[in-house]
Amino acid sequence: MFMGEYQHTVDAKGRLFIPARFREALGERFVATKGLDGCLFVYPLEEWKRLEAKLKGLPFTRADARAFQRFFFSGAAECEVDRQGRILIPVHLREYAALTKEAVVIGVSTRVEIWSHERWQGYNAETATSYEEVAEHLVDFDL
Hints:
By secondary structure, this protein is an alpha+beta fold. It contains six helices and eight strands, in the order ββαββααββαββαα. Strand 3 and strand 4 (40-44) form a beta hairpin.
């Protein structure tokens, strides 16, 4: 399981350090793709295969299903970690997530998310006041 928040820097070549705990769980090869809310989603290959199977099951006759499949799969790239614990984030994914210098790497249960520092701060500011309301509607047990 992925959890935690880590601040790192994207270097001039587009490489980003991945925390050791995340590297262990991601394995040697994993998939990064365009995520929701302007971040990147990163999945271990096993989790990616489960997600791929679910998305393949969507009806191709529905325009919204086709659009989401295109969005999700067209941005996907297989990644691996170098000797220094970094991944090279492809240009199209760096542009999508507005990753220029400062980045935030977070664990979200079955996936890792990579955010630009600015977007992460903005997202947190926007959603901070609604966490209790969301929890009330989604979670049916005591935290």
